[in-house]
Specification:
two-stranded antiparallel sheet; 12 helices; alpha/beta; 8-stranded parallel beta barrel; 44% helix
């Protein structure tokens, strides 16, 4: 069993227990009573290169990334630096995240929030909506075509936008066929956790003309961002590189220098 398969197996058990505590019908009712969240894709597309800055405590490959870890302070710095959206890790066992972090961030910033999770059940989509998410991550490697279609429809009903993550050409083809607008290309292979920026550079041209392509993982410099932009990538998701810097505002501005007006 590889890392991704283990995480997904654990997630299915975790969600099964969560559904006993908060039934789907109650989550759904509460979600639909909330105001519509800020638009995710529109925010990313509003600048030459959109930035989704990530709030993440640790990861299986990197260990603890930032200590002390202050979700609210991190998110506030990202917003002050000009990020277009914030990603918040939801997995507790492997990434040290969770609903508490998400709620802290939601109460601190007005930016669109990405509910970054290993989604295996529609309950998670409604949970994302209930805590104020604008978008939810769907991973092609985790979901078959029927599940992708079902979860995309669920996202539409819940008023959250799907960000469909792919890692290879076959998954990109499935993403294009799904009709989902926001496609994330993960430069990290979730089966081995190896990272290569070439993944985005080789796959972005396979996305449909209407897709908004987000490059995820392994982005460490303004040169990386410029290479991705030149290849046709329209937004980036960056976590570890930013979180390892002492000054988050300076880190964001250094990463986006010469690329995004207002973030320098």
């Amino acid at each position: 069993m590889n890392i991704l398969q283990q995480i997904v197996a654990d997630k299915r058990r975790e969600v099964a227990e969560a559904k006993k505590v908060r039934p789907l019908d109650k989550l759904r009712a509460g979600s639909l009573a909330r105001p519509a969240p800020p638009a995710f894709a529109r925010s990313l597309a509003s600048v030459p290169m959109g930035l989704i800055a990530e709030v993440k405590h640790r990861s299986p490959s990197a260990g603890v990334i930032r200590d002390p870890f202050d979700p609210s302070g991190i998110a506030a710095a990202y917003q002050a630096a000009g990020a277009q959206a914030v990603s918040v890790l939801m997995d507790g066992k492997y990434f040290g995240g969770g609903e508490g972090d998400f709620r802290q961030v939601r109460s601190t910033v007005t930016l669109p929030l990405l509910y970054k999770e290993f989604v295996v059940d529609e309950w998670q989509v409604w949970h994302a909506a209930s805590v104020g998410a604008s978008a939810v991550l769907l991973i092609a490697a985790v979901l078959d075509d029927a599940a992708l279609k079902r979860f995309a429809a669920c996202c539409a009903e819940a008023r959250v936008e799907p960000l469909l993550e792919v890692h290879d050409a076959a998954e990109m083809e499935r993403a294009v066929e799904s009709g989902v607008r926001c496609i994330g290309i993960n430069n990290r292979d979730l089966k081995t956790f190896k990272v290569s920026l070439e993944t985005s550079l080789s796959l972005v041209g396979r996305a449909g003309p209407d897709a908004l392509v987000v490059s995820e993982s392994g982005i460490r410099s303004a040169d990386d961002v410029r290479r991705l932009k030149a290849a046709g990538v329209q937004a980036i998701l960056v976590g570890e590189h930013l979180l390892r810097q002492p000054d988050l505002v300076d880190a964001v501005r250094s990463l986006m220098v010469g690329i995004a007006p207002g973030m320098e």
